[in-house]
Amino acid sequence: MNVQKLRSPAVAVTFLTLFVSPVSAAIPAEAASTGDFRKIIEAAKSKVFPALIYVAPLVEEFQSGKRETHEQGGSGVIISEDGYAVTNWHVVEKAITIRVLLHDGRMTTARKIGEDQETDIALLKLREPKKIAGSTAFPWAEFGDSDRLTEGQFVMAMGAPWGLSRSVSLGILSSTSRYLSGQSQYSLWLQSDASINPGNSGGPLVDTDGKVVGINTLGTVSGGDMGFAVPSNTVVRIINDLRENGEVRRSWTGLHLQPLNDFDRNTFFEGDRGVLVASVDKDSPALKAGIRSGDLLLLVGGKEVNGLHHENLPAINTLLGDLPLDEPVKIRLIREGKEMTVSLKPRPKGKVEGEDFECKDWNMTVKAINEFATPTLYFYVKQGVYVQGIRRPGNASDAGLRRFDIILSIDGKEIKTLKDMDRIYQGIVSDEKRERKIRLEVFRSGLRYQFILDYSTRYKE
Amino acid sequence: MEAIISLNRLFLRYCWILLGWIACGGLLAGSESAGPGPQVARKAMDQYGDHLVTVQVWLRSSEGEKPGSGSRWVRDEYEEKRPVLVAGLAVDPRTIWIPDLELERRFISRVEVQASGKPRAGQKPIPATLLGTFLKTPGWMVKTGDPIPGIQPLQFIPWEKGPGDLITLGAGFGRGGRILSTGSVGGGYFGTGNSFWAQVAPGLFLVSRKLQPVGFTFTGKIGLEEAPDIWRGGEIAAGPVLEFSAFDRMKEAITRKAAPWVLTVRGFFRSEEDLEDRMSRRYSYVRRRRDGSPNEFLASGYLVTPNRIIVNHGLERENAMRLERIEIRVGEKRHPARFVGAYRRFRAFLVELEGVTLPGPMDLSSAEPLRLSQPVIDVSADHSTGRRRDRVGLNRITDYVQAYRGVVEPALQRFPRPGTLLLGVEDRKLLGVVLEVTRESQDEYQSSFRSSTGVDLRVLLPAEIQEILDRAEYDTRLTPCPADREKDMVWLGVDYQSITRELARSQGVEIPTRGGEIGLMVLNVHAGSPAARAGLAVGDVLLSIREEEEPDPLELRSRSESRESMFLEMMGEDVPDEMRMEMLASAGPPWRSPRNFLNERLTQIGVGRRVELTYLRNGKERKCWIDLVLGPPDFESSPKYKSAGLGITVKNLTHEVRAFYRLREDSPGVVVAKVERGSKAAIAKVLPYEILVSANGKVLHQIDDFRELLGEVEKTAPGERLLELKLERMGKSRILRIRY
Question: In the predicted model, is pLDDT for residue B314 greater than 70?
């Protein structure tokens, strides 16, 4: 299955002002008659709807070989009286400014307090807009307990699909613990059939009590009624960290786990406890601790780790990610039938994506190699800079450079970091006297290639 | 829908009318120079118009084939169930001359003649028969049962002058029926040094300025100096005619005579499921396996000595290597034969019978040249349908053309198939043999004697075949070899990038690299390789290689390079496993194969040969000799092991795979080469090109380790077998458990 992030490319805003009176909702939805049900929905909606925001950040992008800015659309929800709001990381990723539309049609701006790429959550702080008569603080919504959700219960998705602000759709929870391969290793997903579209990203998934139980994040590429939301309990944990530190600090062990029972790979191990080590990264704390691929982990810091199915892995990864950095943790494991204990001292995980840089005159963008974002490049070159995007037509393209080429040196000067790149690039392009040509040494297919990049041509923007 | 169909019909008819007009067009153009005036034209039409009758030729399919394989027009007429209309000259009330239709007679169902003059209601075409062919002229004679009304016998006058002073009278077919036109011969003249001719339309009645009958054009070309008997009526009328009925009676005898010379050859290829089929199969038959690879062919061969046969079948390198067995069929008997050599200049190869000789080989002593307009009988055994079919036809030498490689050779009126023998009409002596020419590259001079399918043929005299046999010029690249040598590769031992204009400029080597057009820049020299022995170094620019004894060097310019960046995109992004598997399998191996342009070329030259390498070091040209040796095994040549139960094929780790995965010389593992769809391995999501490090705790160093282990595992009953595999890729591993 192919899932996609739900930010909307278009910014087509239609202002809607709805006033709905709050109604208490105590009757369980399942038992309600048609009339009652309408009231329940109405009540739940009216609790969160005023807190719904339309987020329109101006973001920068480097993929095309050029630094480009454009406004995109997403959704969010205000979670406190003083104007904190939650949205997706991918909505406000690389945002320069963030415009926000409130429920009553007022516009304000927001600043980013923090963001977590791993769980795709960002925390915003809204600037107080001009007051209008009667309105005091920000309307805000409450979080519900996502662990108490059950499949089949009614939920509403709110947001700004395709940039149409303040929209609500209704559905049921299709799954409360969906595991999506390759999407977030620290959290499971809520799946619902409430219709969501690009632009719904960052908007709340609301239960019939009018509580935010998730943040809508992913939809399916091919359409169909499948939306995926980050559960509120994950969101609450993340935003607490963000509010405190401006980031989520995770520990890294270098362990890659696999469940004992993997239906997708038709792989089943005996036993009903522990989690299997699939892979141990080179030069990682786990490798130093002596853990090997094939070991069965039983206890981490005294806590049981049971990875029977894929769905159990995010909790274990979270446990590993939360390990204290200052002291070693004891890990109990089984290897070839023998139980043993090892001591592991994790290191900070650090950034999960490299930074970008535009080499404007050369018509390309570069990015720092990152262990987690570009593991294949990291496999070859641990510290370096690679070609992220190439403009066509353009000078880098004319020279024969390609995406994923690792730049080893320019005019004989070694490039290790994005800072080196910045310094060398500025030095070269500011030198008006020099010949407008550089010699690049590039790593491609395991070989060192030579390229001459002539940047005397100025390509149109 | 109905409207579309009717529109279509209209279009076809319109096209057809247009074609009729085009036929007349040439005449009209010609008449501008020295055509007859309107009075003369009118008189000519009045006097002779009725002699230009319409011959309707109805077509049919024969032996599962449709007529007109070479002509769209004929094919359309057949599909539309209309007759082909031909303008014929009624020389007497029952005899009509028409140009040779270049159509095998088996495709003609019946012939009718439509009398000319003013059409009358109820007028029916007169049934007619194809009587025979003129021997000296490419024309046919049609006889009607009933006389054509209003026709008096034509009295051709003797004509000594050339055709230049003649008036032409022609008939075309348009919407209103038959349209007459007049003109004159010679809107222009053509000459090649060998011959000098005027271009005309075929099927024109030639009359003098005094309106006396002179002749008829059977072809589009009237030679001005030689062979006037092709068009002068008096000579044609007096010349010999071969009746088709007599020819049909001869056919069997001719087939019998040629039977010992033209044999059926069957060859068998070793099958390799991974190989793509690149075999040419134009006139022979290739049976294919379901995976697309051929495993046998059927072709014709010439018995040139009692035990040697030239097989009319082009071999490509891959197929030649996999040629395993050849048998010669004579009637019900099958004789084994061995491969001797594939000709360098012809798409044919020589085989030798093992332990037997056959009677009556071809007599190759004759070097008698073929004359222009000489009629010949062509005999061939067609195997294109998977069965042998003997074909006998009448053909004619119509031209001498400068063919491929500048050889002047006779051209035939009807394009023969390779493997055709030409026999004399009267004595049935062997006059010539047709072979297909090997073209070295597409840019070379194009022969004019070439079919629309791109086949180049040569008509060789028997003595020339003898010469070919004596000279024995074989292509060493086209030789059968055992299966384990099939993928042998000669290597130089360098990795390279092609030079660009900018790189050439920066090194000051623009002139020798012709502005960066040619040249391969060395990026890496493998230790112990021929390149290392020759002292090549990183940064050298390789310019050309020249085979020993070959005068011309081959310039080195690279083709496209590796697909690694595609692989990186696939591995780097969050692609779901199942999609990744499809992508990986279709994208091919991610590493840089040593089977690059340079090594492929050296492999074609062959192990044991020498090449002179020209290269640049620090801008200065240097030369060195390289003895071609086999490279170390690579992914393609490395032996493989396929487990049918798991649906997985693995290979030993070779140097380029180790380099790609940064594995040391002694790191264990075998590489997954293929995963069968729907197999146990596929369900467990084993991906192609991953490294299988261990199985059931046993570290795998080579495929035999895996083979042995599976042998042990498979002693257990199916369904009870348990296999734990550890797979690795780019420093990440995972563990699979497969029960099967």
Answer: yes
